[in-house]
C-alpha cells in the first residue's frame, strides 16, 4: 500500500509539473490609472499598449526568443489596494495571440482610481508572478506612472524585496506635465525618481515619456528591449543616485487638506 501511495504521489507531481509552461519571459505590465491621469490620457495608454503589442517589432522580438513565446498580464493600478486585472496571465506566441490581448486592453475604458501606490503595484505584481502557471527564463515588471509613490509602504522597501526575488523592474515615467490641479502632485524629475527609487535588477532601465505623441513608440521600444533582453543605453540603466524617495509622501502630507483627496 505504501508503494502505491508513493507511485500516486509521483504521478500527481508529474502532472502538476507538466501543467506549468516554460516561456522566455514573464512580463507584468503595470499601468497607472491614478486620479492624476485624465480620461484622454487613459485612452492614449490603452491604445498605445495595444498598438505596440501588435507591432512587427514586438512580434519579431517574441518570435526570435529562445522558446518563441512569452507570458504577460496587463494590470491597471492606483492606490495601495487598487489593482484591476484587465488581461490575466496569457501565453503569447503568435500575431493572433497579441491581437487577442490588444482587443481585451482596448475593450476596457474604466475610470481612473485614486492615489498613487507604486509599492502596492509592485507587491501585487510579485505575488502574481509567483502564483501564475508559467516558468519564465526571466521575470520583468514593467511599471508606468505619472507621479511618485504617495500611499502604502515606501517604494524602496518593495523595490528591494521584489528584486531580491529575481525580478527586474523597469520604468516608464510619464512626464507630460499637464496644466491642471492634479499636476501639483507630480514632480519635474520623475525620470530621476524612477531611476533612484523604483527600478532595479539586472539591466533595469527607464524610458521617459515627455509628450503623449511619443507614448506608443516608447512602449514599443521598451517591450522589444524587455522581450529580447537586449543591451540597453547606459543612460537609461539603473544607477546609484542620491534622491529623496519619500518626496511623494511628503507632497501628500503638505497638501492633503488643501485638496481634500482621501
Detailed description of the structure:
- The chain is of the alpha/beta class and 262 residues long.
- 43% of the residues lie in helices and 18% in strands.
- The chain is built from nine helices and five strands.
- The longest helix is centred in the N-terminal third of the chain and has 18 residues, at 2-19.
- It is globular, with a radius of gyration of 19 Å.
- The chain starts with a helix and ends with a helix.
Structural class: alpha/beta
Alpha-carbon Rg, integer: 19 Å
Summarize model confidence as the mean pLDDT: 85
Largest sheet: 5 strands, mixed
Helix-strand blueprint:
Layout: H1 2-19, E1 21-32, H2 39-53, H3 56-63, E2 70-77, E3 83-92, H4 95-106, H5 118-131, E4 134-145, H6 155-163, E5 168-173, H7 190-198, H8 215-228, H9 247-259
Parallel strand pairs: 1-2, 1-4, 4-5
Antiparallel strand pairs: 2-3
Helix pairs in contact: 2-4, 2-8, 3-8, 5-6
In short:
This protein is an alpha/beta fold and 262 residues long. The protein is built from nine helices and five strands, in the order αβααββααβαβααα.
List keywords for this structure.
262 residues, 9 helices, globular, alpha/beta, disordered N terminus, 18% strand, 5 strands
Amino acid at each position: 500500500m505504501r508503494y502505491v501511495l508513493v507511485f500516486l504521489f509521483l504521478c500527481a507531481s508529474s502532472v502538476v509539473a507538466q501543467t506549468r509552461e516554460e516561456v522566455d519571459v514573464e512580463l507584468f505590465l503595470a499601468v497607472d490609472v491614478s486620479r492624476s491621469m485624465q480620461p484622454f490620457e487613459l485612452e492614449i495608454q490603452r491604445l498605445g499598449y495595444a498598438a505596440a503589442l501588435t507591432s512587427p517589432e514586438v512580434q519579431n522580438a517574441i518570435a526570435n526568443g529562445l522558446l518563441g513565446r512569452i507570458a504577460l498580464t496587463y494590470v491597471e493600478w492606483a492606490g495601495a489596494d487598487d489593482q484591476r486585472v484587465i488581461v490575466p496571465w496569457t501565453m503569447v506566441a503568435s500575431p493572433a495571440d497579441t491581437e487577442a490581448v490588444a482587443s481585451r486592453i482596448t475593450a476596457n475604458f474604466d475610470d481612473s482610481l485614486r492615489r498613487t501606490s507604486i509599492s502596492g503595484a509592485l507587491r501585487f505584481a510579485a505575488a502574481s508572478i509567483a502564483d501564475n502557471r508559467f516558468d519564465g527564463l526571466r521575470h520583468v515588471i514593467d511599471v508606468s506612472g505619472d507621479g511618485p509613490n504617495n500611499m502604502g509602504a515606501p517604494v524602496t522597501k518593495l523595490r528591494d524585496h521584489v528584486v531580491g526575488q529575481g525580478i527586474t523592474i523597469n520604468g516608464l515615467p510619464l512626464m507630460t506635465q499637464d496644466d491642471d490641479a492634479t499636476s501639483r502632485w507630480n514632480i519635474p524629475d520623475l525620470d530621476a525618481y524612477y531611476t533612484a527609487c523604483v527600478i532595479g535588477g539586472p539591466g533595469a532601465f527607464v524610458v521617459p515619456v515627455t509628450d503623449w505623441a511619443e507614448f506608443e513608440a516608447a512602449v514599443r521600444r521598451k517591450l522589444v528591449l524587455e522581450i529580447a533582453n537586449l543591451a540597453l543605453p547606459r543612460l537609461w540603466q539603473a544607477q546609484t543616485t542620491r534622491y529623496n524617495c519619500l518626496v511623494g509622501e511628503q507632497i501628500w502630507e503638505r497638501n492633503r487638506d488643501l485638496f481634500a483627496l482621501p
